[in-house]
Amino acid sequence: MYLWRRRASQKWWSDHGDELRAVAGDRLAIIEEAGRKRLRLEVASSSRTQLQNLTKEFGGRVEKLPADWLKRLSREHQTKPLRIGKRLAISRSGGLQTAVKWAAGNPPLLVIPAGTAFGTGEHATTAMSLRLLEKLTRRWGPGWSIVDLGTGSGILALAAKRFGATRAIGIDSDPLAISTAKQNARLNKIAGVEFYAGDVRRWKFSRKSLRRRSGHSGQVDIVTANFSSGLLIEILPKLKAGRWLILSGILREQERGVASALKRNKIDILQLRRRGKWVAILTALR
Predict the structure, then answer these.
(1) Model's pTM, two decimal places?
(2) Please, are residues 237 and 266 in contact by the beta-carbon 8 Å criterion?
(3) Which domains are seen in the chain, by residue range?
């Protein structure tokens, strides 16, 4: 396994972010660190040649990860569980002993091991999406459905199952992400989540196709998408297959453009959250 890394200013990201996402897809991790103004960008791949091509085009450097890189990252990132309302907590590490210690008087624990290029819930975009999902479904009974685009570690789809979703689908262009998401489902003993590898630009988001995959006779309830604003705007007409949309990965300076695109597509903004440089939006179809 190899890792491409570079640090980038907000201006660099604004100028090159959409182009980088187009090349790297959902393998791209955008990391904010406390006390640092610059973003850390990472892409993991089994192909060194692919990452060297990124270096030629976008700068940065490529390094080979040790065989036990996932375990090392897990040891390095020992943190307190992240609470999502009163119904869930996310931990980057832990096993049975951690779960037992956490159980008394606390919400259920979802363990998403720290891993390169996969979300653990601590990045602002993921955390805001989780909280919007929790709040939206707080009074819902079981039986609803969700499609999570750019699923990464599978965290949103897995959280949705804990919140009461009967069917959950996660889609990502990176087969390694799909493999990791499936591992996380097994780790947390969560059944009934379907993970598929696919490019969101080519994926058929018709209500008929999503109904077929979700197993529901009606419209899919929630579609979540964590992408750059350019890609979100491009696929927005397809996302109307869901009753509610949770959109993230949007920088503050891109907020107005996304809002205008939502209006053009007759999608109403119900709630907008901002955290640092990032924006997440909950919407509903008219």
Answers:
(1) 0.71
(2) no
(3) 2-65 (3.30.70), 119-285 (3.40.50.150)
